[in-house]
């Protein structure tokens, strides 16, 4: 039986070139996981093909293994959640011995998130990652308290952020792009972004969670053992988009890995249009463990429907004045 | 109906999943960590084919052959709740109560908004479900007499196990308890497979007045393996009774879960590992079934200083940092709430 | 027919003293409206008794009438919305002639929000409000761009905030408490709060909206005419609670009017427990025009159920260590 | 069914709500601002008593006597959508299509999530509704021949008006149009009260091919008052045809609304007031019915510099401030997107 012509035409989806990159390193997909929301990738293996996404961004790792905080570690909030895990993890040794090899064997690319309490911690972690198999690059989680500055969060201070980025850039494998991950909890995110870019960051990941608090109406105390926690999920998406928009407007040549509340392909599209070259899917994975693969497919379809032949043509598109773009079809 | 149709459960291979006989020594834990399930979870839409009130709860039956045909007793599923425009992002974990004919059943206690939504599903509705999740109850060596202990809706999670144990020739005793008669669950299903079978209620409104621990204390010595599901204090008491008498126990714990699949680290509790060292174990993928004498019940909700990696949580300076996920823990000994003044400090250092 | 004793006992609701205050001025209820979310009160008259709530906080008024911005002015977001109205309003003359008399005639108390582009604008507005009928106090919306500082928002700068507060405190009727309304979009909200308190603010309103952005997937441009807009609604509640918590912890004697995503009595309770002495209901009014009255009733019930005899005893309760409070019943 | 049961509508007193005869002069607007409704809105739960597909739309009938018994043609209701755990906070405004027997009906076009949820309501469901809202269509002086023009589901909002006009002895002509046959609405109901009655579709799939403006141009000269509801470009064209011929027109506009009750200021459009000056008028409480020649259709979505208060929106300095609600507007002439670099600047002024 042959399908009639019309039906064939109807199912024809314009094929979109979805190649993306992080700091020059090519990715098969612009969709990545978000640090801390996919552990080290393994547990998502039953739900989708991990090699089909851009990379697994691994849970932020520190030099030593960490137990993490006492429970409760989370509370659901309207269209979001707050968490206070405390960076539970195996430390860099465990990462190098158990987690990265598992990913590399399967051809899954990893983008390794590192965290520390001192500038030197970050540098040491970056150095340890030199030559690690399957590692595509490094995301520097600077939303950590700096013990040398009375616990002030690195990312709240442009100078402290720049110092970490410079140290990591110097210590890291030159082939590993270094992305600084910014917090939205600042008066001027562009200032922090600029400091990181000037210090040698190859790109910026944004945003980390917003500091939040939930009080349990029964115990009448903060729900979280850690009192405050990080707010994530669709609730924060407008804030994340605003940060991406501002930073792309100010620093149009700095690549951005956008994240914060992405749940669908159209959400991802908003980040791309605002200036992100790739996106991370975080909390949505808890709702839908196959979200990264689904979002890749939905984004490809959305781009095709809008006449884009290449993902790259859509990056930052919302900033262009209407007369800068040809009517009808966009991109080439 | 699907309850107790344990014969439809995939038969377990009698290989490494069956535990070695109890060593009897109490210096090391009696139970090995529970092995993982045989089948990976799947995600999809399940169709509600039945809903009926069961005492204070709602029993739902769902058509989902991919899950029903591979689920093992002790496993659970995670439902997305609230429909496509829901403000509730996180799944709700519910134990599988029975399987059969491509269907599985669950017993839902309507508490807050998400479980209330679940309990309100009607036949014909579709619901997004992930499962089967978690590690099943390990089966005892052939011939071992067993004791099942269920509290509240936790009893539902034991129905499949009871049927399977019986079909494999085990003696099965059971104690089922609840606060009051309305919160008893799965009484008929368990009565059908267990003897002796004892019911307790705290208020005496059904069965023996008092907690399950009374009958359990009487029955545990005759058992070679104890299986329990219910509230944490009950699990702690049952595990203790079993361990004190040298009987291995398996408890299915209930910790607050954000993802149910092992990626978020919210569902942890302190558990003694195979190497004898304690770690925060994820109850969704390393549990929910743990050896009863490996769970450090008294330390749940705290950060015991001897945990692997607990040392890395202490700050060299007094904590005045935001209690972000990214922030180190205050000294483990600090009062909860000690970082109440936590806030991000400004770049210009305006705050003292 | 006489009801049996038991049933009478069952329906007995402990009566809670709900008296609150703003800067010493007593309120019949701790529940107020939020500026810009109830216009000048009139339109809510069909839905509940406006005299039953603490006060109507009026839309921020400036010296001159303002048209507001071009549309679109809003976009719905997950559990929230963003808006960019542009402070459309009648100016202080219109407020004094038409709006305040209407409220005063009906015995409705107003808390007047003022906004300006220069420190002097704020002072002039405060002076104009001297002797205005029914005015309980002044909320100073310092989330406005300061034309003398290249459009930097006053509330982003502790010194600029303090200057406005000091000028308003000096110009205003001494009987009018002056509340400074803070933005959460700062690195250190405690620093701004402290500057305002030191400058003579009688209290703090927190929080204003978070800066956000939404891109329309069809037009592929920002939805709002104003590009970015303010995010409000339950989505931001954890951020608002965190701000209230931090400021109350640092400045326990400064009264707080808490707001941000309050939709139910239990939401309001969280703010009270975190340290707010009264609360404002904003975006929730769009969903439920009788929300302020409903929330008052729900809050009273929630307090009673928890054994509080007085609202005042619950203020900041979540900060107290568990052993500071008697077991069983709380407060007197 | 409830459609067109205009006889159940509360009869309007013939006092000040009926407009004076058309002056004929075109230097000042032909229509006065529409007067407010007679009854204040109420809020409550309405029970869905009927749901049926009507071409591309869904017609819902709801039991809500408080609303049905006081609603006037041209008014609308606002529904809360998504149920108790919805992530959608804002109400959806829908025109009242008919009233009778304590019920009212609406015609819903399922677009995005909220309207799709509404269209999926089933008999027996309850939905939170506020209404009746907005200003009704003012009635013409006795004996005035009238023309109704409906586009898409907008035609539904004219059904009650048509019945009322007929019951008061007016001649009623009607033109109903849509993009295609499937998007025509209320054709039977309006055909029952109007003569001549013309149907148009852009694609010619029903009635006359083309837009409503053709037949409207033919019929408008015979009318003493025109009433229109439909998409903005249609309203603009119809109002223009009427005004050009000195016929007063009333248009029911559709602006994006957050509250529907007048407190949020999101639903504005530039309208010429009774004093001849233009202001941003709230379409929920000052509309949705406006005199057609008072709406500045060409300026919708812009900030015309002659608007009352537009002068206060200009910044003395180039706008580099956040586009907060609280921020002044950039120069009215500025390109949209001109403040793309907007961001709150840091206290320490790190940014150039
Ligand atoms: C392995 C396992 C099996 C379970 N089996 C059953 C069962 O058979 N029947 C039943 O009625 N309930 C069961 N529960 C408990 C059930 O998951 C919670 O009661 C339910 O998630 C609460 O949802 P809510 O919307 O009422 O509460 P909320 O407090 O609004 O839930 C908010 C968030 O916290 C999580 N959460 C809150 N309480 C719990 C909890 N106790 N356990 C896990 N997550 C929680 C929710 O999943 C959600 O992510 C089980 C829990 C676990 C971990
Ligand atoms: C006075 C009036 C009468 C209307 N009558 C009808 C009717 O009879 N039948 C019908 O199908 N539709 C009618 N509409 C349009 C209807 O309100 C929108 O189509 C609907 O709100 C869109 O909801 P959504 O969830 O699909 O879209 P979304 O885009 O998700 O809506 C998001 C938000 O924007 C608002 N919004 C978006 N589009 C509109 C719009 N066109 N008008 C008002 N608010 C909007 C919504 O209310 C909501 O607050 C009317 C609108 C108005 C103002
Ligand atoms: C449970 C949880 C744990 C997280 N852990 C980390 C982490 O270890 N390192 C990090 O940089 N970000 C971490 N994040 C932040 C996310 O990577 C992401 O930046 C944020 O959640 C916003 O994206 P989302 O809304 O898609 O989740 C965590 C978030 C969640 C919810
Ligand atoms: C449509 C809209 C208009 C607002 N206008 C003002 C305003 O004029 N002045 C002001 O201080 N805050 C204004 N706000 C902020 C609110 O008063 C409130 O601080 C914020 O919305 C958070 O509370 P909510 O989540 O309860 O709405 C406005 C908010 C909204 C949604
Ligand atoms: S629930 Fe996420 S790791 Fe267990
Ligand atoms: S919709 Fe809120 S004022 Fe009109």
UniProtKB/TrEMBL annotation, chains A, C:
Catalytic site positions: 144
Enzyme class: oxidoreductase
Cofactor field: FMN
Substrates-to-products reaction catalysed: (S)-dihydroorotate + A = orotate + AH2
Name of the gene this protein is made from: pyrD
Dihydroorotate dehydrogenase catalytic domain mapped to chain residues: 20-303
Binding site for substrate: 59, 83-87, 141, 208-209
Enzyme Commission identifier(s): 1.3.-.-
Keywords, alphabetical: Cytoplasm, Flavoprotein, FMN, Oxidoreductase, Pyrimidine biosynthesis
Location of this chain's protein in the cell: Cytoplasm
This protein's name: Dihydroorotate dehydrogenase
Keyword Zinc-finger: no
Pfam families: DHO_dh
Family per similarity comment: Belongs to the dihydroorotate dehydrogenase family. Type 1 subfamily.
Cofactor note: Binds 1 FMN per subunit.
Pathway: Pyrimidine metabolism; UMP biosynthesis via de novo pathway
InterPro entries with a match to the protein in the record: Aldolase_TIM, DHO_dehydrogenase, DHOD_1B, Dihydroorotate_DH_1, Dihydroorotate_DH_1_2, Dihydroorotate_DH_cat, Dihydroorotate_DH_CS, Dihydroorotate_DH_I
Superkingdom, taxonomy of origin: Bacteria
Function description: Catalyzes the conversion of dihydroorotate to orotate.
Binding site for FMN: 35, 59-60, 141, 181, 207, 233, 260-261, 282-283
TrEMBL record, chains B, D:
Ranges where the FAD-binding FR-type domain occurs: 35-139
Signal sequence segment: none
PROSITE patterns assigned to the protein according to its UniProt record, in alphabetical order: FAD_FR
InterPro entries for the chain: Dihydroorotate_DH_ele_sf, Dihydroorotate_DH_Fe-S-bd, FAD-bd_FR_type, FNR_nucleotide-bd, PyrK_electron_transfer, Riboflavin_synthase-like_b-brl
Any Pfam family: DHODB_Fe-S_bind
Disordered: region residues: 1-39, 310-352
Protein name per UniProt: Dihydroorotate dehydrogenase electron transfer subunit
Organism, scientific name: Klenkia terrae
